[in-house]
Amino acid sequence: MDFTPEIKDKLHQLQEKYTAMGQDMASYLDGLLYADFLTYWDYIHLDTLLSLQNPKTPIPDEEIFIMYHQITELYFKLALHECRQIAEHENLTVEFFTARVKRINAYFSALTTSFEVMVDGMEKEQFLKFRMSLLPASGFQSGQYRMIEICATDFIRLVDKSKREELNNATIEEQFENIYWKFGATELSSGKQTLTLKQFIKKYAAQFLQLAKDRTLTNFSALYHQLQTNGADVSALAEELRKLDLYVNVEWPLSHYKSAVRYLEKDPVDIAATGGTNWQKYLPPRFQKRIFYPFLWTGEQMEEWGKGWVLSVLKTLKNKD
């Protein structure tokens, strides 16, 4: 058959490409000739993916628990992919920044919506049985989630609210010693760090500290102010950042709180959360007052942060029971 002008043009471009690299185009065409056609299942490694669920017990709903957490971590990886694009962009524009934050918000929207799988998708009796085989592992130990937080805001905003003013000018290392999530993983009886927290710090501390230093001038808050100072119209970006603030600091922890109330609350004594985390004070947004972008909210909005959500959820769940 005759080559069309389009095919000839593509071959010419390929020749130029491989010549510039000192390569022989004919050898690469041989490789293309002998290679098998790509399949969907090979491309996404489907067989491997479906083999990664390995329950610790024979209790059926444990497999749901595993798969949902794996899905969650894949969404976090998507969010971090966008975070890197924003932070490492050589000529960052408001339009690019806004579009990528909008993608992150879409991921968190999917996550918060789908969390009903965890709230209502397992039998309580099954969960309370298989969870005991998972100790001291906990969803608390999601390193990717902590990395998203570090990328999203100035590191001081992640310090426990009781220490923020005192440590405002402290080093990253000093601030890290008082990061909010450490206060959520202490033993209620002794006040000591749980094994869950000790494992987590041992695995990720160096990585978190390095990322915090790398993102000092390239976290979302810092980049927003840079663009604003340069005279850019940041109104659309501000709207997406407010959404991100609510997703990460209200909706997502509240989703977990709903799940904890559903499975772990036992009247009159509460069952300790997996890994010993103090979920009753750690998860509710109104207690933590984690706000990435206080400059985008009014004083009244910050004062009421998370209160309405928590109260409405508790009322709904208690009515169910």
TrEMBL record:
InterPro entries cross-referenced by the UniProt entry: Trp/Indoleamine_2_3_dOase-like, Trp_2_3_dOase
Domain of life: Bacteria
Alphabetically ordered keywords of this record: Dioxygenase, Oxidoreductase
Gene3D superfamilies: 1.20.58.480
GO molecular function: heme binding; L-tryptophan 2,3-dioxygenase activity; metal ion binding
Record-given protein name: Tryptophan 2,3-dioxygenase
Keyword Oxidoreductase included in the entry's annotation: yes
Biological process (GO), any one: L-tryptophan catabolic process to kynurenine
